[in-house]
Amino acid sequence: MNTLYYEKFLVTFLILAGCLAPVFTASARSKHVQFPDKKILRYQGEFSITGGVTSYSPNLGADFLNGIRWNPYLFTGIGLGIEGGIAAYTAPVYANVRGYAPISKKVNMYLGTDIGIKHWIGHAISRFYAGPEFGFNFEFGKRMGMNVGVKYDIWCIPVSMNDAEVNKSLNTFGLVIGLVF
What is the pTM of this model? Predict the structure, then answer.
């Protein structure tokens, strides 16, 4: 597979979705469930399961994200996770910023990113980590919801380790399903 093609497609798709969001969401803003009339700060947590494929192996992960939903359109938080693949386990620690665009009373489109450090467990390697994400949030009430999205993780690692040549990066393209509370 040509990963450069997928990277260009993902970037183009995310930019297009971000530009079109205000066009399709203008009427939904007044109907938002979680922030009906007041602008209040509130805690938002998320437990998510991720699954994806790298150039090296498939992997699965779990993340716990805690933060503040500043208004119906902006969330910031801090996350911690564990990911496992065929070769090793990694632990990302990151900050998350996510923008929401209401589509209907109980559905929001979101675009966000994780930026932080990912540590390779069992090795003394910690490197920069970023993970742009696009998806939809389905609200079940004032305090519960579910996120379904796609994510592209960027993780830069050394070119060689233990006298073995490895990729310059272990980027992952995958799906995210999360319970929001």
Answer: 0.73
